[in-house]
Amino acid sequence: MTQAPTIMQAPANAYFRSGGALRSRSVAGAVRHGVIDVPAPPPRVQADWERDIRKYLMLEPGDVEQLSLARTHLRWPGLDDCVQRMHGWAGALGLQEVLASSDIALMACRGARYHHDGEQYSGAVFCNLFLSEDKGLDVHFPGTGQRLALTRGAAMLFDTCQPHAVIRREASGFQPDDFPAHEDLTQVFLTWELPVQAPGVAAAMGIAFDTDTPSIRKR
């Protein structure tokens, strides 16, 4: 019998360091998303990714790991075009300067279990741009009910504390058996960490600060 998927709930509040102080904030339910026109990675770059995923990352179903951004940029100057188009998308949300000054990484996943990243990244929101073709996968945000198709150019901005997973499009939740070794079900994407206190970020996401001051005083 197939086991029912385990789905996490979003925390009521998130806690992050601001200077030397511990602050609280609300967890945004909003997921800002769209699809932008970005160039396809050339075959040699896709071959590099496939080799690294197979030989070094050895992704198991549900794993999310980092690829070499520097090597990809060296092999694919067109990556700059992807980044600039993402800046344009973020600019429509008033976040172009924030995106340009935020940390960026290149990631690969083979699906993703339901999780949130609040323990490590509670002071940020994630901004992702997917570079792979549509392989029949969705990112699912159970707290909002949203399912977004992962296609080349899929862009999204979401709270790090909002639970999410990458699942098969026809599935109701994440199951490891949905990602057999003989199928190419990996997705490669760029991700940025946007500080939640940076100008415009909280407004774009509907985040309120200092939502749990009494609890913080006890910590």
- Which range does the strand content fall in? 25-35%
The overall strand count is 12
- What fold name stands as the CATH topology? Jelly Rolls
Structural class by helix and strand composition: alpha+beta
Task: Please report the distance between the alpha carbons of the first and last residues.
Answer: 44 Å
CATH architectural designation: Sandwich
Number of discrete domains = 1
Q: CATH first level: which class?
A: Mainly Beta
- Tell the overall outline: globular
**Helix residue percentage:** 10-25%
Biggest β-sheet strands, sense, barrel: 6 strands, antiparallel
Strand order of the largest sheet: 3-10-7-12-5-4
Question: Could you give the order of the helices and strands?
Answer: EEEHEHHHEEHEEEEEEHH
Radius of gyration, Cα only, in angstroms?
18 Å
Number of helices: 7
Residue runs with pLDDT of under 50 for 5 or more positions: none
> How would you state the average pLDDT, rounded?
93
Q: What's the CATH superfamily, by name?
A: Jelly Rolls
Protein described:
This protein has 219 residues and is of the alpha+beta class. The protein has one domain (31-217): Sandwich (Jelly Rolls), CATH 2.60.120. It is 25% helix and 31% strand. It has seven helices and twelve strands. It has helices spanning 43-57, 69-75, 79-91, 96-100, 118-121, 201-205, 213-217; strands at residues 13-18, 21-26, 32-35, 64-67, 103-109, 112-115, 124-130, 137-141, 146-149, 154-159, 164-168, 187-195. A six-stranded antiparallel β-sheet has the order 3-10-7-12-5-4. Strands 6-11-8-9 form a four-stranded antiparallel β-sheet, with no helix packed on it. The chain has a two-stranded antiparallel ribbon with strand order 1-2. β8 and β9 (146-149) form a beta hairpin. The longest helix is centred in the N-terminal third of the chain and has 15 residues, at 43-57.
